[in-house]
Design a protein that fits this description.
The complex is a heterodimer of chains A (165) and B (778).
Chain A lengths: L3 E8 L2 E8 L4 H8 L18 E4 L2 E4 L12 E3 L13 H8 L9 H14 L5 H7 L11 H21 L1
Chain B lengths: L14 H5 L15 E7 L5 E7 L1 H5 L3 E5 L35 E2 L5 E7 L2 H10 L1 E6 L6 H4 L15 E9 L2 H7 L2 E13 L7 E7 L4 E6 L4 H12 L6 E4 L15 H13 L3 E4 L2 H7 L2 E13 L5 E11 L9 H8 L10 E8 L14 H19 L3 H8 L8 E6 L5 E4 L4 H11 L5 H10 L3 E13 L5 E7 L5 E5 L8 H13 L6 E5 L16 H28 L6 E4 L2 E4 L2 E7 H8 L16 E6 L5 E13 L6 E11 L6 H21 L29 E5 L22 H12 L9 E2 L3 H14 L1
Parallel strand pairs in B: 1-12, 8-29, 10-11, 14-15, 20-21, 27-28
Antiparallel strand pairs in B: 1-5, 2-4, 2-6, 3-5, 7-15, 8-13, 9-10, 9-12, 13-14, 16-17, 18-26, 19-20, 19-25, 22-23, 23-24, 26-27
The chains are: A alpha+beta (165), B alpha+beta (778).
The structure holds FE2/S2 (inorganic) cluster (FES) (2 copies).
One FE2/S2 (inorganic) cluster sits at the interface of chains A and B.
Chain lengths: 165, 778
Amino acid sequence: MTETRKIEMTVNGVRHQLEIETRVTLADCLRHHLGLTGTHLGCEHGVCGACTILVDGQAARSCLMLAVQADGAAIATVEGLAGDDGTLHPLQQAFHDNHGLQCGFCTPGMLMTLVEFLESNPDPSETEVREALSGNLCRCTGYQGIVAAALDAAQRMRAQAVGLS
Amino acid sequence: MTESFIGARIGRFEDRALLTGQGQYLDDIHMAGMLEMAFVRSPHPHALIRGIDAGKALALPGVHAVYSHADLAAVLTADRIPQDKGGAKFPDTTWPVVLPKDETCFVGEPVAAVVAESRYIAEDAAALVEVDYEPLQPAADCRDAAAPGAPKVHLEAKDNIVAEIRADYGDCTAAFAAADHVFAISLKQHRGAAHSIEGRGIIASYSAVGDEMTVWASVQTPHKLRNGLMELFGVDESGVRVIVPDVGGAFGGKNVIYPEDVMVAVAARLLERPVKWVEDRREHFLAAVQERDQYWDLEIACDGEGRIQGVRGKIIHDQGAYTMMGLHTPHNSAIAVPGPYVVPNYRIDVVVTETNKVGCVPIRGAGYPEACFAMERLLDEIARGLDLDRAEVRRRNLIPADQMPYEHPMKTREGTPTIYDTGDFPACQVQALETADYAGFATRQARARSEGRYLGIGVSNMVKVTGRGPFESGVVRVGRSGRVSIYTGAMEMGQGTKTSLAQICAEHLGVPPGEITVVAGDTGAVLHGIGGYGSRQTVTGGSSVHLAAIEVRDKALKVAAHTLEVSERDLELKDGEARVKGAPELSMSLADIAKALSGAKGYSLPKEVTPWLQSCVNFRPPDVTYANAAHVVEVEVDIGTGGVRILRYVMANDSGRLINPTLAEGQLVGGTVHGIGNTLFEWMGYDENAQPVTTTLADYLLPTAAEVPNFEIIHVEHPSTLNPLGVKGIGEAGTVPVAGAVISAIEHALEPFGVRIAEAPISPGRLIELIAAGKQGS
Ligand code: FES
Ligand code: FES
């Protein structure tokens, strides 16, 4: 019943090797085995989006994956967003500046969803942002601050990209 | 004049940790030796428990214990959950049980608790516990349950009626007899559950050394939980400490003491190991409190101009299987109908009836959204019957500004007079209508109609009681390091309470708000407190902190004046020190003042000051204060799909003086979207046998970003006269008027089909039915 497997994955650039029960979800593995509790669980059935992380660059619901399925994968979670010096990612900064979070429980999932979205669509319309977020539930904010933050961050990131080139 | 922090749009200090994944929510806490709990829950709405066999579960490696009712007496003084009953006289059978002895009364009720090394193992073991049930007839629909001879929710009860409430004044019989017009409606109202994205959760740890229990819990009211556990374990305040970590939303769902809370504490006590339980979403659907069903029959009487002469009617309220928190919801619904309108005669009778479903307690809005919807539906009846504009009918009936403060003939829940302290209800409506270009709507509607599109507009007004007492604690302390701290029974659950309280305190102490520590939700830090519900915290906790900070300031100035040998009047507090105005080199730091006051040697103190640079205030507002709002919403209805799109949403809201308008807007938008969920999406379904049928977020729909617009907010600030800050509550203000406005707008859009809506929520499928029926009828 408690079959285990050895797996290896990179999380926010750090390599981890662990032996884990095959039935443990990726979310529980990150939270309870690796101590990365920034990824949250709101439903554990794939609807709320709170557990969203990036697996090999793609947004995924960590409650719907087993840890063993992530063997060999590169994973990014909210803990890896800010710079090493503590500088907030433009999305994080924009969430703060636009009151894009209240209780903060949905926030990591919102951020990771938007990281992927803004990479593929750096200059979205408000409607596109709302569509992109429609798989992430927030009970506190009514989404207005989150949408404003996403648009604000997109603008900052575009400005940054221009500055760099 | 120094810069004012009160009223400033300051970014929250709570944010950084939450944005970087460093927040600490309940499930993020891990302790050495910690065990986890899972529950065996009843699959039956009503059944006798003939026996529980835990043999197989206990044999599973990693399982430490399985507890049922028989185990409670070893550590608990009672097997029912303590409640502040006040004068309430309810049947004994309605008080919630810790675990049922031999009769389970709703699907999802915990019947046994399993403790194991991990949640995975605990759930495996829970599935192995064999419970011998003998199913009984359930009471599912509250209308049937209220009827004589209905199947009983509890076998030992006399019937299913928990209470009957009457709210009345004036003379309805005479008013209705004399009225020019009488209109009648029947409404079906339903609100779902709280659905904070973080579920409930609790950890308890017991130390035999000192006989002390420490509890970490995701709750709105830590002192209530502390008090309940004290009573159950027969200890005093020193025996239980409740600490609340970061809370991932609450909305009413974390405001009662649940069986799961008690069982975690029981297990920690018996095993002397930390024990954790975290609610999953399915458990939230099954076993977290809900607001659910009310059935209304109402009549309104008016004169030829549409002026209200009276309102009367009946409500049947679904209380669920247990009375978890008194009659707050049905009572509020009964008294809140008149709201901002002049209603000279009134009588509502409520039958509060049990059903074999989870208990009903207030969710954001607490019975007010239902009452507001009922009133707004009645006003639309008058408009239709007398062929008047809907906003005009409301204008004629709103309490005029020159009558404020307005003593309403209605008595409060406590039986005291209802007095609306400040506000200008008609002006709020005017501002909302103007901003929404109500006058230009007919043109927009006609243009859309010529393209085959159906637009409608709706208006509603509300008043919400806020700032409930009896008090809230606020301790302001300057430590020996000079650091300013606030300790309070008020709670941070996402509203930005900590930031707001720091702003209020900073105003007086000349310290930037970001440098103030706020400890909220720790019964060990502040012995008494009430907590977060009912839009109360800024009114009560904010005022306490305000008054405490003033006392601390005065004391600091007194000591500094004494030491520096100057007059207090010549001093100011700035940048963490008391300075002589115009000669800032003459100063004494807050740290030195705090040291002097905490017994440090070498300082001389003025005679009359008491030790410690600290003040504790428990502000007791003389009365509740009332927030009010007008909402105007424009919608488009797709007559092919029944889909409703909100095109524009404007609100004029008066919550008195605002401490931080940005945070206030967050509360209003979040509250309004909660109301939109209640109006268009959220339905907690039970079948005819009281089996829950919506137990995932794929079945029970919450509003998402794609379904809601940006909201336009007009702040109207009439300061309350009942607290020193002039604030009124805001947390629920957005939720209350939504259904009234949105349903009116939908009905307006569908006028060509004669659609009449007498229910909330309303789904696309139901709208299609109503449109089809309307087409047939025409
Ligand atoms: S927790 Fe994974 S989607 Fe809700
Ligand atoms: S901020 Fe609380 S759920 Fe989104």
